[in-house]
Amino acid sequence: xxxxxxxxxxxxxxxxxxxxxxxxxxxxxxxxxxxxxxxxxxxxxxxxxxxxxxxxxxxxxxxxxxxxxxxxxxxxxxxxxxxxxxxxxxxxxxxxxxxxxxxxxxxxxxxxxxxxxxxxxxxxxxxxxxxxxxxxxxxxxxxxxxxxxxxxxxxxxxxxxxxxxxxxxxxxxxxxxxxxxxxxxxxxxxxxxxxxxxxxxxxxxxxxxxxxxxxxxxxxxxxxxxxxxxxxxxxxxxxxxxxxxxxxxxxxxxxxxxxxxxxxxxxxxxxxxxxxxxxxxxxxxxxxxxxxxxxxxxxxxxxxxxxxxxxxxxxxxxxx
Length: 320
Prior knowledge:
Layout: E1 12-15, E2 18-24, E3 27-34, E4 39-42, E5 51-59, E6 62-66, E7 69-73, E8 78-82, E9 87-91, E10 95-103, H1 111-116, E11 119-121, H2 127-142, H3 148-168, H4 182-197, H5 206-212, H6 217-226, H7 231-247, H8 259-265, H9 271-282, H10 286-296, H11 308-319
Antiparallel strand pairs: 1-4, 2-3, 3-10, 4-9, 5-8, 5-10, 6-7, 6-9, 8-11
Helix pairs in contact: 2-3, 3-6, 5-6, 7-8, 7-11
């Protein structure tokens, strides 16, 4: 079994299962198919110490076995395992499994949070898994047919969501559900306002936002998971909206700086990444958008802050 770039994926043995591999930047996507009774058995190697496995089943039920622990796993659920540890997946039905092999360094969560999140997730009403499982399935079905820049963007989404899952599952007493009462809604409103006022700051991190509003990072991730997105993706979407608005200005009295300058103004560090993200969100390059709006005589939109609920909906749509 080899990946599409010619490299051999990690040593994972199977009994009665078929495997295929696709590279998504630093992430390797492994897809397994097999009949009932198949066993996916992971025997760790030294190279596995720096990797985690995030899996979801497109079809069929199975049992995840780690030492003396055995947990059922079904479509719509996800499981997280450390690849430095042995584990097995026992298929109870004909199945198809997508397994993402993710470098530890790419995940925005602490080792303690990841360790606490090991196992199967997906209880009814769980907002994080409800968001994560469909993204993993869609990415697995579509990523192989796209060029490398798109695959790297897919990998960034997957690692971002893994960080959200780990933060939401970190050990500790549960906090109040986001938005469940007036105080929760007010906190969410203040977080959105703060983010909109600091979109140009390149250090606009979850840690900084949480500290500013006297909440934990875990709670902050849960707030946005309940909205059907993640904090990082929502910030990116708001930055794109502001870049789009500024590039849509027209007229000699309202000159527009270069595309790269606009991107930097709104917190994008890499111009190439900004251009790819803009095209993915709006179907054209930033330069094409600017020429279209100025030629048509339309303004790209005034006002500092777009409605927060509309931004979340657009971010969710772009993720799909």
